[in-house]
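Work Package 3 (structural annotation) set out to generate three-dimensional models for the target panel prioritized at the project kickoff. During this period the team completed the workflow that converts sequence records into discrete structure tokens, so that structures can be stored uniformly alongside our sequence database. As a representative example, we reproduce one entry of 398 residues exactly as it appears in the project archive.
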Amino acid sequence: MELIDAMTDAVRGNGGRISETEYISEIMSRLTADGKTPQIDSIKTNAFNSKRMQKAGVTRVTVGGGNDAVKEVWTASQAKQLLQNGPGATGSSTVSVGTVSSMPQTGAVWMGIPVRDVENDETLDDASRSLIPTVDPGFVESPENELEALADAMDLGLHSMLSGPKGCGKTIAVRALCYHTQDPMYRFNCSEGISEDDFVGCRESLDGNTVWVDGLVPRWAKTGGILFADEFNAASPSVMLWMHMAMDSGTIVLPTGETIDLHPRCRVIAAINPPEDYAGLEELNEATRDRYAMGLDFTYLPADREAQVIMDKSGNNDSSLAREIVALGNDLRRMKEDRTLDMDCSTRTLVQVMTIARRQSQTKAVERALVSKYDRHQKEAVRTVARARLSNFGVLAN
């Protein structure tokens, strides 16, 4: 066990928050039990190092003020939730958090982008406001700093293309971008099909009169925000035509003859899955790719960070189980790359395993959330890997 693991386990093993004194004591105990000989002075210095705490997914929190102040260490996710919901949950009116930034306020700037004043922005209507994320989805950046890249593209007026396997965080990254900038997220899935009436608009009869009803694209053009085309390499020619019109000219011309100039905050983000890995997907041509100046390759997080993510998303603080589940996921991903398996193992699936494991045995959680997703001819291969990787797979008692 490394120091970072001990820091994570000390906090999560105590429900996500612990006093600073107990935090150090827990770390010492865990490292000693692992056969190490930690020095108290060194642990005190290194366990409170801000970069190490960030990597461990924990942060310092001070509850109360003056002589009554209590210094604690919390999981970063729990501290962030406190900032969003207010300090009342602690029973104190005064809370300060060490390394977690607060929710952006009206007039704020996030990564160089002015945060929209949602209440007073007259270009937004109730429908578009409902598309603005109200909760931070908790996207965890890799060393590639995906959110920084998306923010740069937005600030520079560029469109972005995200490439990577299903369930590796592409959609959550876009939702996080819209949360921080307070822009609407106009999402549609190309593989599920979207009609031209829904995408562009149509004429409808209302009280004996024929009226035009805007579809997704003209609403986005008028209000600004992110037009997020998920599984874009499954898009129909009609969808691509309308998107390219908007991106190339900065305007769209409706069948009614109305011309709409794009709102200055209009950006397009397209997400694609590797066509060689998913049936029915096409490789995009050069002309299409050239419209997206910012290209980002998404993959799964390093094991330690993915373990933190699946604990945060599931509410299951069993860090030993999380590390085993991530290791199992990575084994299955390698088998997918080797063509031994047909399907990838997404972070989303690992979150589902951890969630079910809160109430059911490890075996049932893995069987129901993971093994069940595979073809019947491949289930036993997945079970074999699970038996080799997981400490309690095959134990049915809860």
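Confidence is low (pLDDT under 50) at residues 87-95, 99-105.
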